[in-house]
Amino acid sequence: MLHTPVLIVGGSLVGLSASLFLAWRGVPHILVDKHTGSSPHPRAMGYTETTLEHYRMVGIANRIPQTPPEFRLRRVTVANLADEWLGEHAWTPGEADKHNSGLSPNTGAAIAQDKLEPILRNAALELGAELRLGTELLDFEDHGGEIIARLRDRNNGQEYTISADYLIATDGADSAIRERLGIVREGVGHVQAVRSVLFTCPEADQYLARGAQQFEIEQENFRAFLTTYNDSRWLLMFVDDNERSEDELRAAIRQALGRDMAFDIITTGRWEMAGRIATQYKKGRVFLAGDAAHQLPPTRGGFGANTGIDDVWNLAWKLQRVLDGISDASLLDTYDAERRPIGWLRHQQTFSRPDYAKWVNSDFKADPLFRNDAMELGQLVRSSAVIGAGPELPAAASPLEWAGQPGTRAPHVWLTNTAGERISSLDLFGLEFVLLAETSAWREAADALKLKLVCIGKDVHFLEPETFAATFGIPPHGAVLVRPDGIIAWRSNNTAQAGGANELKQALIQVAASAC
After folding, report:
1. Membrane spanning segments where (predicted)?
2. How do 159-169 and 286-288 pair as beta strands?
3. pLDDT tens digits for 144-153?
4. What predicted TM-score, i.e. pTM, was given to this entire model?
5. Domains observed in the chain
C-alpha cells in the first residue's frame, strides 16, 4: 500500500497553500482534488498583508501582484455604475479607512482566485509536492495509528487505497470529511442564498478611475452588488435567490451598468452566505482547515480565504516537527486551541458589523468591533505553545500596542544584515525556532539547545531609532523566542546572567513539546 506522511483533500486556495507550506518544509505529502483545475468562477479576490507575509517566507510573494501602498478598498452606493456616488461605506464604523503601510513589509493583493491558484500550484510542484488532480476521496478510516483512505482517479476510474499519518481536510464548507467525523458546527447559520453572474466588460473599467471597486446598486425596483476582478471581469450579485434566464441576466447587467456597454456573460453562480464554525478543528489524525472549519461570508480582510491560509500556516510547522520526531504529538493539539478561537473571533466580528448585523436574529450578541490593523495583523493566539498570553488580554489589538506580546505575530521592523542588505525582521523566521537577543551571553544557552540565535547589533542592525528592547517589550539583556510561524512564543524578563539559560530551556520544552 502506498504511504504518505500527509494526505491533503481539496485543492483550492487553502489546500494548495497547505501543500506549498509543507513542501517548503520538506514534508512529503499527497494532495488530491476531484477537479482538474480552478473553478471558472473566480470567487475570492482580496488577500491580506499576513497572507502575503506567509507567501514571502516561502519565497513566492514576488510572483503575486501586490496592491500599491496607497491603495484602499472602497465601497460606494450608486444608482448604477455610470451614475454619481450617493455615499461611501466605512469598512469599520467609526474608523477612518486609512492604510498603515509601516506595519508589514508587504501590502495586500487584489488578485482573482483563479489566477492565484496556478501560482500556488506551480510553486508547490517546484518544491516537490505531489498533486493528484482529478482524484476524489471515496472513504477513509482513522485507525488510531494511521489513516487509511480509498481514492478514485476520475480520469480512468481506477480505485486504490493509501495510508497516511495525518489527513488535512480542505474540502470546503460542505466537507464530507467533517460530516464523516460527526463534527457539528455552531454560529448564526444560514443567512441567505446568493446568485451571481460573471461577465466581461472592458468599457466598464473606466469607472474604476474614480477610486471605488465595489458598488451597492440601489434603484427603486432593483438592488444588487457589483464588483470587479480588475481584469475586465465583473461580478453582479443579486439580493434574491431567483433563477434568471439569459435575457433576464443581460437586462440586469445593463441596469447595473447604467448605460449601453458591450459585455459577454462567462458563467453564473450560486452560493450560501452563512456563519458556521466547527466545534472541533482536530479529531484523531484529521485536521479541518479553511471553509471545512469555518464558513464565513465575504468581508474586508477576506475572513474566509485568508483565515484558511493562516490555518495551514499554523499547522504546517507543527506537522513537520512531529513527523521529524523533534516534538511530541501533543503539539498538534495546539492547532485546535489556537485556530478555533480565531474562527469564532472572525465570526463575531463579521456579524457584529452593520452590513451583516441586519441579517441575524435577536439571539445574536454583537461584540465591539476591532480596528482593521488589529484584525489583520494583531490577533492573539493562546495555547500551551505560547507562554504569557493570559485570558486577561484582548483577542486582538494593533501590533503597535502589542509590542512583542507572546502569542502575537512578531513585529515587522526594517533591519540591515551583515551583507548590508535591507530586510524585514520577519525574514528571520519561518523554518525553525529563533532566539533574538541583544547580548551574546545567550549564545551558550542557544547552542546547547540547538537554537538559531540572531544577535541584534551583530547579525542584524536596526535602521530606525527604536530599539530592539522597546520593539519587543523586554529589558536590555532579555531575549525573545519566536516560533517557526513567526508567532512570539516566549520572552524573557531576566538577564542572561540571572538564570536566563534555564528559563529558556524550560520555555522551549513547553512551547515546542520537545525533550530538549
Report:
1. 6-24
2. parallel
3. 999 999 999 9
4. 0.94
5. 2-67+107-186+275-357 (3.50.50.60), 409-511 (3.40.30.120)
